[in-house]
Specification:
The protein is α/β, with parallel strands linked by helices and 232 residues long. The chain contains nine helices and seven strands, in the order H-H-E-E-H-H-E-H-H-E-H-E-E-H-E-H. Strand 1 (48-52) and strand 2 form a beta hairpin. The longest helix is centred in the N-terminal third of the chain and has 19 residues, at 2-20.
C-alpha cells in the first residue's frame, strides 16, 4: 500500500514536471511527445524463448522484446532517467511473455530483488513497477544476502561468479513459481534466483523478462511458432 502511494505520488510529480520541462520521445528523441507512434509500434511484443543452463537444472526464459534499438532506449530511460511513466508502455511486453510462459494461473510470480543501492538511487524497483502496470501481483520471496558488483562491465563468467550464492528465498516451499525481471543478458542473475528458489523448495516453471539481449547463437532466440506469435 505504501509502495503504491509512493509510486502514485512520484508519477504525479513527473506529470507535473512534464508541463514545465521539455519532453522528448524516449525511443527517438522526437520533441513534445513521451513516445511517438513509430516507437510505440516498436514496443509491440514478440515473445521469444531462451534456455538457461543445461540438463536437469536448465529452465526457460521468455522475453517480450529484444533489448536493442527502441526497446533498449525506452528501458534505459525508465531505469536511468527516472521516466517512470514508460513502465505502462513496457507492460504489454511483460504480459505477452507471461502468457507465452503459460500464464499466471496457479503460480506465484516472484520478482527479482533490487539492491538497496539501486533502489536508493532510483527511488523505485523497475521489475515491480512494470509488473504493477501489467496488472500482475508479484511476491518478494527473494532477497540478496550480500552485496554484488555492477554486472554491466563483467563477462559471462564474471557475472556468474559475482552473483553466485548471493540470494536467498523464503516462504517458497511447495509453490510453483515464475521469476520476473526487466532484462536478461547472460542469465547469471536469474539463474541465481532460480537456484535460491529451488533450494527453498519451489518448483520454478520459467523466468520471464520484458526484454532479452540478442545472442549470436540464435537458435534458442529465434521467433517461436505461430501459436506464440499471437501474444503480440
Amino acid at each position: 500500500m505504501i509502495a503504491d502511494l509512493s509510486d502514485a505520488f512520484r508519477q504525479a510529480c513527473a506529470e507535473a514536471l512534464a508541463l514545465l520541462l521539455p519532453v522528448a520521445c524516449a525511443g527517438c528523441d522526437e520533441s513534445d511527445v513521451v513516445l511517438c507512434e513509430r516507437c510505440v509500434l516498436a514496443l509491440s511484443p514478440e515473445p521469444r524463448r531462451r534456455l538457461i543452463g543445461a540438463g536437469e537444472t536448465s529452465f526457460p526464459v521468455w522475453s517480450g522484446l529484444r533489448f536493442e534499438a527502441v526497446p533498449a532506449r525506452v528501458i534505459r530511460a525508465l531505469k536511468e532517467d527516472g521516466r517512470t511513466g514508460l513502465a505502462r508502455a513496457l507492460a504489454p511486453a511483460l504480459r505477452a511473455a507471461l502468457e507465452a510462459a503459460g500464464g499466471v494461473s496457479g503460480v506465484t510470480v516472484v520478482v527479482m530483488p533490487t539492491s538497496w543501492a539501486s533502489f536508493r538511487r532510483r527511488g523505485y524497483r523497475v521489475p515491480d513497477l512494470i509488473a504493477r502496470r501489467a496488472g500482475v501481483r508479484v511476491h518478494p520471496l527473494l532477497r540478496q544476502t550480500r552485496r554484488v558488483h555492477d554486472q554491466r562491465r563483467l563477462d559471462r563468467d564474471g557475472r556468474r561468479r559475482n552473483v553466485e550464492g548471493s540470494m536467498r528465498a523464503t516462504d517458497a516451499a511447495g509453490r510453483r513459481v515464475i521469476v520476473v525481471d526487466d532484462v536478461v543478458t547472460t542469465g547469471a542473475s536469474v539463474a541465481e534466483a532460480v537456484r535460491a528458489l529451488r533450494d527453498a523448495g519451489a518448483e520454478v516453471v520459467a523466468a520471464v523478462t520484458v526484454a532479452a539481449t540478442p545472442r549470436r547463437a540464435a537458435r534458442t532466440d529465434e521467433p517461436q511458432p505461430a501459436a506464440f506469435q499471437t501474444h503480440r
